[in-house]
């Protein structure tokens, strides 16, 4: 099934001086201009292309990869503003993405980097962007488990911390007390479910909760020690930044974990770092 606004695997059915024609199913054929055609392409060969409608409403193919396909979120730069909305660079050279004024939470100006959701407008059939995410999120029950690893996109900064999009489907919150390292709008990272409340709201954390967190970090520390020849120049006196850069965890969690490993007789805590005990 052909999906406009997404990457499709299509067959080359005709070659011309100006490009390749691809079998686009019910849409007929789609032109892949020569500047995007792979060298040596032949009739009968299948290639991956992104499909979109140009300004003349013609179906066009490109081997470029968009920042976000239909149904996805992506961080994009605003290229300009017109009487109908803002236009964002979504990675397709010949086609900027329109974000209509009606789909903007605030007005944008050229040069801004914003998080955008890409969708197909049912009324016009056009591929457009929106920053009004609420109508696309939390449409299904949040069936997550505590400590379940999930994909996150940082979407908003708030007085409480950072709002994040969970698995492209739900809103979640990373509270300030659970924030470490640099977070910024559009950043993609792994996180964990801290709690799903009775009202459906999701609390997130960047590391596992409770004993599971400690066990996971213990394994990482022992693994790194083995790879580093049994010694690591980090201990309970090290800076939070150096600890985070190595283990992506807070200093408090690191201190508790190496304390547990020390009590188990697995490591020695020295003045200059920690050492693996054989």
UniProtKB/TrEMBL annotation:
<dbReference type="InterPro" id="IPR014464">
    <property type="entry name" value="CvfB_fam"/>
</dbReference>
<dbReference type="Pfam" id="PF13509">
    <property type="entry name" value="S1_2"/>
</dbReference>
<feature type="domain" description="S1 motif">
    <location>
        <begin position="3"/>
        <end position="64"/>
    </location>
</feature>
<comment type="similarity">
    <text>Belongs to the CvfB family.</text>
</comment>
<dbReference type="GO" id="GO:0003676">
    <property type="term" value="F:nucleic acid binding"/>
</dbReference>
<dbReference type="InterPro" id="IPR012340">
    <property type="entry name" value="NA-bd_OB-fold"/>
</dbReference>
<feature type="domain" description="S1 motif">
    <location>
        <begin position="69"/>
        <end position="132"/>
    </location>
</feature>
<dbReference type="InterPro" id="IPR036388">
    <property type="entry name" value="WH-like_DNA-bd_sf"/>
</dbReference>
<dbReference type="InterPro" id="IPR039566">
    <property type="entry name" value="CvfB_S1_st"/>
</dbReference>
<dbReference type="Pfam" id="PF17783">
    <property type="entry name" value="WHD_CvfB"/>
</dbReference>
<protein>
    <recommendedName>
        <fullName>S1 motif domain-containing protein</fullName>
    </recommendedName>
</protein>
<dbReference type="InterPro" id="IPR003029">
    <property type="entry name" value="S1_domain"/>
</dbReference>
<feature type="domain" description="S1 motif">
    <location>
        <begin position="145"/>
        <end position="207"/>
    </location>
</feature>
<dbReference type="InterPro" id="IPR040764">
    <property type="entry name" value="CvfB_WH"/>
</dbReference>
């Amino acid at each position: 099934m052909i999906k406009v606004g997404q990457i499709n695997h299509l067959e080359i059915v005709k070659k011309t001086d100006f490009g390749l024609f691809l079998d686009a199913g019910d849409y007929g054929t789609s032109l892949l201009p020569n500047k995007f055609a792979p060298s040596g392409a032949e009739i009968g060969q299948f290639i991956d292309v992104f499909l979109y409608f140009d300004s003349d409403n013609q179906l066009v193919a490109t081997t470029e990869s968009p920042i976000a396909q239909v149904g996805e979120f992506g961080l994009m730069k605003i290229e300009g503003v017109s009487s109908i909305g803002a236009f964002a660079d979504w990675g397709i050279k010949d086609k900027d993405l329109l974000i209509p004024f009606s789909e903007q939470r605030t007005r944008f100006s050229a040069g801004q980097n914003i998080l955008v959701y890409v969708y197909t407008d049912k009324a016009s059939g056009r591929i457009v962007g929106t920053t009004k995410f609420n109508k696309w999120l939390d449409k299904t029950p949040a069936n997550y488990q505590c400590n379940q690893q999930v994909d996150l996109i940082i979407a908003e900064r708030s007085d409480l911390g950072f709002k994040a999009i969970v698995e492209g489907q739900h809103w979640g919150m990373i509270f300030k007390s659970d924030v470490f390292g640099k977070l910024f709008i559009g950043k993609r990272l792994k996180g964990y479910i801290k709690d799903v409340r009775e009202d459906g709201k999701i609390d997130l954390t960047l590391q596992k909760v409770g004993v599971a967190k400690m066990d996971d970090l213990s394994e990482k520390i022992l693994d790194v020690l083995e790879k580093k020849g049994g010694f690591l120049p980090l201990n309970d006196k090290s800076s939070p930044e150096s600890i985070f850069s190595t283990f992506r965890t807070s200093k408090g969690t690191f201190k508790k974990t190496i304390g547990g490993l020390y009590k188990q007789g697995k490591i020695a805590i020295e003045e200059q770092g920690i050492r693996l005990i054989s």
